[in-house]
Amino acid sequence: MDKSVTAVPHSVKRWQLSGTDYDPETVRTLRSFLLLCVIQLFEDRVKLVIRWFDLWTDGQRKHLMSSLLGRCTSSQLRDLLMETVPVTRLDFTTVLPRFLSLYVLSFLNPRDLCAAAQVSWQWRFLAEQDCLWTKRCVRRGWFLPYSPGTREYGAWKNHYIDCVSTLHWLPPRKAATHYRSLHQRAGETAVEEERRQGRKESCIGAASSETGPPGPWRHGGSRPPSQ
């Protein structure tokens, strides 16, 4: 064996490091080229899916949309709605089904419902539905005296407004002069009730004074020992 030839164990690694395969500029160029290829491939596939989507039937389109939306996260759906709805300025009552629009309007109070009914004919038709006003009336004991017709809507709303307009909004003191309080007897005025309450309190005070002075323990002293 020729002893003049000596093996250099790291010579191959030096050659690889000093060669063009590991040139940083070449690596960046290759990465940029691969990234452009991936982007171009993605755009081509998107155009192909859109071309297919235009040729599909309504059922096939709904199936694809439900599959895509089912795989989206809640944040992605929220961002999609925030980007789409303000740009198009769509009326939710014309896009959503009627039961969803009524569910949204059910969170409004009666004053806001009356204000919503003045936006448009569509909003008025939804804001005057009986399902929004029936529970409000029944909860307060305001029952409709007749059965609305099949083509009649807004009966419960009008009944609610009529009942509210007939209420007497009075403070407690002024209401006591017009209506009896809970402790007032039938046919008794407010002055007679005050006199009766005063006599009752004086009788209670006289009865407590006849029992004698209280024990010393009621004035802070020690209780008597138990026998």
From TrEMBL:
Superkingdom of source: Eukaryota
Gene3D superfamilies the record matches: 1.20.1280.50
Residue ranges of every copy of the F-box domain listed in the record: 90-136
Composition skew (Basic and acidic residues), residue ranges: 192-202
Matching SMART domains: FBOX (SM00256)
Classification via InterPro entries: F-box-like_dom_sf, F-box_dom, GEF_Ubiquitin-Prot_Reg
Region (Disordered): 186-227
Signal peptide segment: none
One Pfam family in the UniProt entry: F-box-like
PANTHER family xref list: EPITHELIAL CELL-TRANSFORMING SEQUENCE 2 ONCOGENE-LIKE (PTHR46857:SF1)
Protein name: F-box domain-containing protein
Protein species of origin: Takifugu rubripes
